[in-house]
Amino acid sequence: MSRIIKHVGIIMDGNGRWAQLRGLPRYEGHKRGVEKVKEIIRAALRLKINVITFYAFSIENWQRPKKEVDIIMELLQNHLKKEINNFISQGIKFKMIGNRSLMPADVLYIIEEAEKATANCKELIAQFAISYSGRDEIIRAVKKAIQKNIKPDNFDENTMNSLLDTSEVPEPDLIIRTSGEQRLSNFLIWQSAYSEFYFTQALWPDFTDDEFTEAILDFQKRQRRFGKVSEFTRT
């Protein structure tokens, strides 16, 4: 690719609506959504992307009906148990970003086991934003700064970046949102200051490898000026 894309964030929206449109219970949409994650990870590997971050479960999602939350946590737990060996064989480093203090202990245990098992994988970092909120992440980062006794004069953007959950990865070049909604919904709000956006009407279970590739190609055509004048602008 002539313009390298290192990090893609995906807001996976529309699982419940996908199921309801088909007269199915909402959990069937979540199950189909898990399979879609596996497909898009394979596409990210093929396209040589370094980092992909999936917005899997927001802090606000804890307010959903308990039965639905329990099903999502069970799907996450079972999926990770099955996929750890596949992650290792494909060179995928698994990482959770989000507020771990809110997670059920048994689910967090599996998450941390997956992180340990894949820590040395180099082909792709697959981050899952679980129990995540961009505002919560920033508040937690500020609390870390206070605990570390970082002086105001020493606090800058680099300091902030080092305190965020995403400190190990570059900022997202592109953020994709499915289901027709056009907002961030509290996803990577610090990191996305200069991200490009791609919105699609497709519900997440209907989002395809081909459209993911199309979104990457669309990104290739864009000019990223970061507040500067375009290199093509005449003086």
Structure in words:
The model has no long low-confidence stretch (mean pLDDT 93). Helix 3 packs parallel to helix 4. The protein has 7 helices and 6 strands, in the order E-H-H-E-H-E-H-E-H-H-E-E-H. It has a 6-stranded parallel β-sheet with strand order 3-4-2-1-5-6, with helices on both faces. The protein has one domain (7-133, 170-220): Decaprenyl diphosphate synthase-like (Undecaprenyl pyrophosphate synthetase, 3-Layer(aba) Sandwich). It has helices at residues 15-21, 26-46, 66-90, 105-117, 134-147, 157-163, 209-220; strands at residues 7-11, 51-58, 92-97, 124-132, 174-177, 196-199. The two termini are 29 Å apart. With 235 residues, it is α/β, with parallel strands linked by helices. Helices cover 42% and strands 15% of the residues. Strand 3 (92-97), helix 4 and strand 4 (124-132) form a beta-alpha-beta unit.
What is the level 1 CATH name? Alpha Beta
CATH H-tier superfamily: Decaprenyl diphosphate synthase-like
Low-confidence stretches: none
Structural class: alpha/beta
Query: Going across the major beta sheet, what is the strand order?
Result: 3-4-2-1-5-6
Cα distance spanning the termini:
29 Å
Number of domains: 1
Tally of contiguous helical segments: 7
Topology:
Layout: E1 7-11, H1 15-21, H2 26-46, E2 51-58, H3 66-90, E3 92-97, H4 105-117, E4 124-132, H5 134-147, H6 157-163, E5 174-177, E6 196-199, H7 209-220
Parallel strand pairs: 1-2, 1-5, 2-4, 3-4, 5-6
Structure at a glance:
The chain has 235 residues and is an alpha/beta fold. It is built from 7 helices and 6 strands; from the N terminus they run βααβαβαβααββα.
